[in-house]
Amino acid sequence: MEVVNTLGRRKTAIARIYVSEGEGKITINKRDYKEFFPSATLHYVVEQPLMLTDNLGKYDIKVNLDGGGVTGQAEALRLAISRALVKIDPEYRPVLKENGLMRRDPRMVERKKPGQPKARKKFQFSKR
Asked: What share of the chain is helix, strand, coil (3-state, %, to 5)?
């Protein structure tokens, strides 16, 4: 199997991954993913597509993560892994799609408007 390369995005986080056959190492920016993501919840998010398709421990994944916060980065990585698994074997698509892992979450931060302190918040109104 040759190296499969995919991209995942969430908010402002971008995950570029390279998947090759191996013993299940996930390396993010030259660090182990359990060291990179501190909580068990984020470990689950990253492993989710691999668990659903019974591929935990079959592929080595090298990741370049950039931008965003930890949750956005973990979810961007989840999308990238899902896309890579579908590239490897299209049979995985229905399982991943059913669990909502094939969709790029379109929600982004709303921009700040002029004359307001935040996107929707207004300055206090004074009648007099």
From this structure: 35, 25, 40
